[in-house]
Write a structure and sequence with these properties.
This protein is α+β, with helices and mostly antiparallel strands and 505 residues long. The chain is built from 16 helices and 14 strands. The radius of gyration is 30 Å and the shape is elongated.
């Protein structure tokens, strides 16, 4: 028995990848079986099955598969049964070639001598087949692990349009994209991330539309990733985004195949990661935070109105608390007399200054919102509504919070919930502007807004200016900004698409 085959230790190396001690396959079936068993020692899910041909008992084989990852029907019907019953086995000097060519009935069979590739295939749900007298193993496609059915994503409900959503299986997700774009121009490049998780990912793009420089930049950033495990696409997004400290997203995420298809038709790139329904799209522009998925399935008047309301909601959500605190603390002369008297009367007997009052209410709202998200859906909604009403009413009656402050926080909360794509950045900017207004009044609020505008215009997403569509002045570049123009007006693609900028001739 070859000492290289079984005696060297198998353990993670310095990078976390498995080191098989230079082990190689031999022509001895028992040596190869011992090697696989040693690699998967103490793993009770790996199933070993010895198989002999009924007509030629010397034609011995051994198969390995992982219970729950491989389909038992495929293993029984297309691997075990042909090996037992076929009369063509044992006639060739190359048993592995004979099995793959004349015996096994699977749709994908690979001959492999590399131990690492064999192990990778077994872990992925395929079946390994070893034959006596062959120094190679076969990786037979037999994946059959359960996956979640295709359904509408909860986070991206649509009024109209397709109801399909991505699942956790990358091959299912790729098929959903291909069903939207029936063209050989659609390209898919597989990669793996994570020295321990070895998570598969796929770069998807339309070759005739995607800028080669954009694709090269993405691959360069992906090559720099050094991490032991990737469990979600956000792992990769945080590692390849342009400004890693910015609260604003420069890489889009979606669970809907139609959104990915639309982005690809604009010359963008999608990155799908196995094990998560969240798909990355890039470049990603600021205006996309206010574009709903079904804007393009509704009448453009209604879609434009909804988009302008979302933009207004963002501005109100980050500014109302700060402006209220600035007016009531520093600039009372700017408030109409009757309104100022009403606010001052409501604030009598309140033990906290206006800033602290507002800060406490905003924190309480964030706690209620987070609790509602984490709780089961049927309990979370009731908790959010009842909690807000009870706490607000009780706080006003107990003279802990003034009634105008409850109104201010309620409007802030409602307008903040209208834009879930920019939720994190909205909360951060809201608190920064509140602190600045509490110190310098409207001047502090103006400084924060100016810093926000400067920051947004300084951001890029893979070489594209983050605010490029917002700052556009040409009519064709403004067709899909604050308003959504009719399709017969949108004749060109976004500003970053240079290879084929015209949608239709």
């Amino acid at each position: 028995m070859d000492s290289n085959n079984i005696k060297k230790p198998i353990r993670p190396d310095e990078t976390g990848a498995m080191d098989y001690g230079g082990a190689v396959l031999t022509s001895s079936l028992e040596a190869n079986v011992a090697l696989i068993k040693r690699i998967f020692k103490n793993d009770g899910t790996v199933v070993e099955r010895r198989v002999e041909n009924r007509l030629r008992p010397k034609a011995r084989c051994c198969i390995f598969f992982i219970d729950g990852m491989a389909s038992n029907q495929i293993v029984d019907e297309y691997i075990v049964k042909p090996i037992i019953e076929t009369a063509a086995l044992g006639l060739s000097d190359d048993p592995a070639e004979e099995l793959s060519r004349d015996v096994l009935a699977a749709n994908d069979i690979r001959r492999e001598a590399c131990v690492a590739e064999l192990v990778k295939g077994l872990i992925a749900g395929d079946t390994l087949v070893f034959a006596e007298g062959s120094g190679m193993g076969l990786i037979v496609s037999s994946k059959g692990f359960p996956t979640r059915a295709v359904s509408e994503p909860d986070s991206e409900k649509a009024l109209r349009g397709p109801r399909e959503g991505f699942t956790e299986a990358i091959l299912v997700n790729l098929s959903l994209v291909r069903r939207k774009l029936h063209t050989p121009d659609l390209k898919m490049k597989f990669r793996s991330f994570g020295t321990r998780s070895d998570t598969r990912a796929c770069i998807v793009y339309l070759e005739s539309l995607t800028d080669p420089a954009l694709l090269a930049e993405l691959e360069r950033r992906l090559d720099l990733i050094d991490i032991d495990g990737v469990l979600d696409s956000n792992y990769i997004a945080e590692l390849i985004k342009d400004d890693k400290h910015s609260p604003f997203k420069t890489i889009g995420t979606t669970e809907r195949p139609d959104v990915v298809a639309g982005r690809l038709l604009e010359g963008r790139i999608a990155l799908l990661v196995d094990g998560t329904p969240m798909v990355l799209t890039l470049p990603y522009l600021f205006i996309e935070n206010f574009q709903a998925d079904d804007d393009y399935y509704l009448n453009f008047y209604f879609a434009s109105m909804g988009r302008m309301l979302r933009i207004l909601g963002f501005l109100l959500s980050v500014s109302i608390p700060a402006v209220y605190v600035a007016f009531t603390t520093f600039h009372r002369e700017m408030i109409p007399t009757n309104l100022a008297l009403s606010v001052m009367q409501a604030h009598q007997g309140i033990p906290f200054p206006t800033f602290l009052e507002c800060f406490i209410m905003l924190i309480i709202f964030e706690i209620i919102r987070e609790t509602g998200i984490r709780m089961p859906s049927n309990i979370g909604q009731a908790l959010s509504i009842v909690g807000a009403l009870v706490i607000g009413q009780a706080a006003v009656q107990a003279k802990l919070i003034s009634a105008p402050m409850v109104i201010v926080v309620a409007i802030t909360a409602i307008t903040g919930l209208i834009n879930p794509k920019v939720k994190g950045a909205t909360i951060l900017v809201r608190f920064l502007s509140l602190f600045a207004a509490a110190i310098l009044g409207l001047f502090g609020f103006a400084f924060v807004m100016a810093a926000l505008v400067i920051h947004l215009f300084s951001l890029e997403s893979f070489g594209t200016v983050y605010m490029s569509q917002v700052s556009a002045v040409r009519p064709q570049e403004m067709k899909d900004n604050a308003v959504r123009a009719p399709w017969y007006f949108m004749k060109t693609r976004p500003v970053f698409e240079r290879r084929d900028p015209v949608r239709k001739n």
